[in-house]
Amino acid sequence: MSTSESKPSQSLAALGVHSAEQVQSLFAEVRQQFDSQAGNVTDENSWKAFRDAWLARKSGVFTLVTDNWLKPASPDLKRSVGAALNELRKHVDSEIEAKRLSLAANAEGNAAAKDRVDLSLPGVIRPVGSPHLIRQVFQEIEDIFFSIGFSVAEGPEIETPYYNFEALNIPEHHPVRDDMDTFYLELPKGAPGPLLLRTHTSPVQIRTMEKRRPPIRVIIPGKVYRRDNPDATHSFMFHQIEGLAVDSSITFCDFTGTIDYFVKQFFGGNVKSRFRPSYFPFTEPSVEFDASCVFCGGSGTAGSGNTCSKCKGSGWIELFGAGMVDPTVYKFVGYDPKKVSGFAFGIGIDRLAMLKHGIDDIQVFFQNDVRFLRQFP
Ligand code: PHE
Predict the structure, then answer these.
(1) Distance of CA 241 from the midpoint of ligand 1 (Å)
(2) Which residue of 116, 262, 282, 283 has the fewest C-beta atoms within 10 A of its own C-beta?
(3) Full-prediction pTM beyond 0.85?
(4) For the segment 119-149, what is each residue's pLDDT rounded down to a tens digit?
(5) Contact status, residue 128 vs residue 211, Cβ threshold 8 Å
(6) What is the pLDDT of residues 205-222, one digit of tens each?
(7) How far apart are CA 299 and CA 45, in angstroms?
(8) Which residues are CB-neighbours of 310 under 8 A, at least 6 positions away?
(9) 280 in ligand 1 pocket by Cβ < 6 Å?
């Protein structure tokens, strides 16, 4: 402690103060000391220490001044010591309170600054995805058929054998059931059944015809399931779009014309289509539609001069099955086979997407690898 700081511990006589003027300057000195200490108060702790140094009852400056200067002062000095002490006290009280307020305001400001949302910070980037390639191809095919008057119908993925087979003219022991090698559901005892995962979208043909009268022009997109072992061209789940048109006088020409239109819209105007005889229990006649190979332009020879690996040199790529609706099917839905005719087709979407985009492994559709997905934004 400097001499001046220790002054309140001494008596006025010991300090050599005998006149009112000396009292004035002594108090001025103390006040100055107070003001300079106030400048060092920066936070709550230093403020408390400062307040106690001046106001603490036991050994604060004011207690000392009262005890050592005021109380023992000679009668002629007492007045001026008392007045100066009061004045100093007012100054000290108001300064200490002002200091407290300004510290509190600062603290509030600091907290607010901490809580403030900093709009200049980069946000959390949530990557926006895009429709899966399969979904995009669905959309593209749907749009082509919308443009010629078809609309979308849908049906359940869990089916009864009646809709998946019988009503499509596939009776219980028909050999084509073997090809479908189906997933049956394990049902609780006593539940009505059996139920299976549909093997094709064709059951929705039946469901649609049951609900509606001709004219019908629908496409039926959806998932189908077969017990296939996964490889580059097989998956236990894949996607189809079924097509069905039934009216009073639909001909084979309407059928091939529609398919040809679709193939050209989807693969390009230069692509040729052809159909070959085939067999499905629910179409008669049945055909298999081919498109001229989109990789070698139908020549069967790749750019390198080698045989085109995609069509194996034939110049044609098998696309999907189709046919004129078998009259037997109409009987299952209460249509008069003599009065209506129509055609149906079942397009494998995954296969079409692979052909169009040069993808040689169906599994990449289901692996969710963003490096693949990003190529089709
Ligand atoms: N449902 C048949 C299949 O999945 C495809 C098909 C549909 C064939 C409609 C003819 C008519 O193989």
Answers:
(1) 9
(2) 116
(3) no
(4) 888 888 888 888 999 999 999 999 999 999 9
(5) no
(6) 999 999 999 999 999 999
(7) 91
(8) 293, 294, 295, 296, 317, 355
(9) yes
